[in-house]
Amino acid sequence: MRHLPGRRESAIADRHDVEREVISSRRAFEGKVVNVRIDEVQLAAGQESVRRDVVEHPGAAAVIAINDQDEIAFIQQYRHPVRAELWEIPAGLLDVEGEDPKETARRELREEVDLIAGRIDKLMTLALSPGGSDEFVHVYLATDLTPAEKPFDRGEEEAEFELTWVPAKEAIRAIMSGNIANASTVAAVIAGFAKKEQLAAAQQPRPKAAEKPTMRLMVDYSGPALWLLGGDAPEVSDEKLAADLDNWNEHFQNSYDWETGWRTKADADQHFAAAQELLPRVQAHFPNYYVYHDVWETRYQADES
Predict the structure, then answer these.
(1) Of the candidates 262, 72, 86, 45, which has an alpha carbon nearest to the alpha carbon of residue 169?
(2) Where is the Nudix hydrolase domain (predicted)?
């Protein structure tokens, strides 16, 4: 096996609690939707400041709607900056003061394709072009869909919107073939289909205790990372796996408070990502048990979502 340089990490998460000193800042342009700001930033101590041109954007919400036949709701929209008609999921600006992005997603689904979501789940938040813009897009998955009682009165460019249902696997194939270019749509289709399958799997009945003993991969301040329902979990003979389980449990102890929840969203994300890596290893180590991850509640002391 060829060894390549660089450090190894089993779980990574963006940091949103860091800043660099801004030496000066001025508004260079004000537009209908975006503004342009010019900052002089001190990136590192002892180095000269650098200029950064920043496009200020209000942000947006996008929603991938998947029906019971695993078809995705698409529209085609002309995008003048790239001179193309792009296949996209419903989306819109966060331009209503005080409106939660989740409600923006619901509203855009209703206004653009006349659909009502019985369930809507957060998928991700995307920084679309962090090298030059502060725009974030909040992406949601909409399921349990029903048609609106009457069509929304769409004007201007939205009057051309036509709801088109595309099988999810065909949409993924189009993405991999380079036939869909909208970044939030690409991310939403891949993540949304995976999330829908995950939700469906979670609703499947677990094996009966008589068929296989059930073992939980979970965390506690005082106990081990593995719990056997109705008895003591067997010892982990794999030293590397045992150490990784201890480290995972220790991370929880250092990052979670019983009264206030997770210290940061990054801590929670790191914990859950590590659990997903550990789960198949534990299952392979104990093939005669049914192992599942007992997910801890997701409350944050500082909400970064």
Answers:
(1) 72
(2) 55-188
Q: What is the 3 state secondary structure string of 52-92?
A: EEEEECCCEEEEEEECCCCEEEEEEEEEHHHCEEEEECCEE
- pTM of the full predicted structure? 0.66
Please state whether 261 falls in left (phi above 0), alpha (psi between -120 and 50) or beta: left
Residue 203 pLDDT grade (very low, low, confident, very high; cuts 50, 70, 90): low
Helix H or strand E segment including 165: strand 164-167
pLDDT at 194 over 90: no
SS3 state of residue 48: coil
CATH architecture of the region 60-202 = Alpha-Beta Complex (3.90)
Q: Would you give the DSSP letter of residue 208? A: P
Model pLDDT for residues 287-297, shown as the tens digit of each residue: 888 887 766 54
> Which sequence spans correspond to the domains of the chain?
21-56, 60-202, 214-302
Where are the alpha helices (H) located in 167-238, listed in sequence order? 168-176, 183-202
Three-class SS state of 1: coil
